[in-house]
Write a structure and sequence with these properties.
This protein is of the alpha/beta class and 372 residues long. It has helices at residues 3-19, 53-66, 83-95, 109-117, 131-142, 149-156, 165-172, 192-203, 220-228, 270-284, 290-308, 333-338, 343-356, and strands spanning 26-28, 37-43, 76-79, 99-104, 121-125, 145-146, 183-187, 209-215, 264-268, 313-319, 364-367.
């Protein structure tokens, strides 16, 4: 079989897999403290590989195939803290390609098991800072291809259509009381989701703002602040330790994070992220991941701002993945205690805001000026 025929067959397999899949649900989440604001969770945990990263992996594979970067027998290598690697392992197996995930040694054992379940191999390194360089080295050694989600996430996704997450959200909102969300809240792992949503909203003329919620130990927020001041520095680096909210937050500002696609950012303490995660768990009766909690804190932040401005409307955010992958950590009291979290205070703060409308603890916020 020629290379061209193999690529055509590979693309058909991925498109057929997509055609077999249903869209993800949009779940209402009533916040009693904000009765005039409708909140929705875009449940990305229902993808075949259990997270938002399933969309990204599909786009990255199609992008690599269309660019001629993959061929029969290529070893696919990715730098990932877990969920992207799970999804890429799924697509690599679909195409009959070997897959290696380069990830920090701190990655949850549940995610490692999921990667191995889909036929991938895990290559652990001491720190998240070194995973890209190690991935590039492994790709060179094997004659394979480094997918490099942190560089290609924003360009691999077709932000105009092709059932990207933004198109799906706006279509599902069409019959709601407030069909055009005032805000869409997401967090950044690569920055691809915030870029896709921001671009699509502008392309379609929707008056929807994007808030990016950044975890405690991450470089994205400071990079955004620099961009607002007109002095962006691409290699902004966050101080140690690395992000404790798996899947989001990075030790450097990655190329796929596009500050111009984001109207505002908020820095979220990890304890509040996990308290909001626990709040959603109690409200939905199912476990969600820590990044969903970070997003919910962002939702509460913009809900407060909307109420203060006398604004009614809707907010959409992302339920990024299920909580089953974090049984050993976020849902383990011993782990929380070892991390030094005061969960009683954080839980009380989130409940008070969500249920009664009380003010959140002060958070660090940066926002683009109106009209920019």
């Amino acid at each position: 079989m020629s290379q061209r025929d193999w690529v055509a067959q590979a693309i058909r397999k991925i498109e057929a897999d997509f055609n077999r899949s249903a869209d993800t649900h949009l779940i209402p989440l009533a916040l009693p403290g904000f009765p005039d604001i409708d909140v929705y969770l875009k449940d990305e945990s229902s993808h075949p590989t259990g997270s938002l990263k399933h969309r990204l992996a599909r786009s990255l594979f199609l992008y690599a195939l269309a660019n001629g970067w993959l061929h029969a027998g290529s070893t696919v290598v990715e730098a990932s803290s877990g969920s992207t690697a799970v999804s890429e392992a799924y697509f690599a197996r679909l195409l009959g390609l070997p897959f290696v995930a380069v990830m920090p040694a701190s990655t949850s054992p549940e995610k490692i098991a999921a990667i191995e379940f889909h036929g991938g191999r895990c290559h652990l390194v001491p720190s998240a800072c070194g995973i890209a360089a190690e991935s590039a080295r492994l790709a060179r050694e094997t004659g394979g291809h480094f997918m490099d989600q942190f560089t290609y996430a924003e360009r691999a996704t077709d932000w105009r259509a092709n059932n990207n997450i933004a198109e799906s959200i706006f279509k599902q909102m069409e019959k709601e009381a407030h069909p055009v969300p005032a805000w869409i809240v997401c967090s950044a792992g690569t920055g691809g989701t915030s870029a896709t949503i921001g671009r699509y909203a502008r392309y379609r003329g929707f008056e929807t703002d994007v808030l990016c919620a950044d975890p405690e130990h991450s470089a994205f927020f400071d990079h955004y602040v620099r961009s607002l001041a007109g002095t962006p520095v691409q290699d902004d680096v966050a101080p140690a330790p690395p992000s404790r909210i798996e899947g989001i937050g990075r030790p450097r500002a990655e190329p796929s994070f596009i500050p111009g696609c984001v109207e505002a950012m908020v820095k979220v303490p990890d304890a509040l992220s996990l308290a909001a995660m626990r709040y959603v768990n109690a409200r939905l009766g199912r476990r969600v991941g820590g990044s969903t909690g970070t997003n919910i804190v962002g939702v509460l932040q913009v809900a407060e701002a909307m109420r203060a401005a006398g604004q009614v409307g809707s907010i959409v955010t992302i339920l990024c993945d299920g909580g089953e992958r974090y049984a050993h950590s976020y849902y383990n009291p011993d782990w929380l205690q070892a991390q030094g979290f005061d969960m009683a205070a954080a839980d009380a703060a989130v409940r008070a805001t969500a249920d009664t409308g009380a003010a959140l603890p002060p958070l660090t916020l940066a926002r683009r000026s109106a009209g920019e």
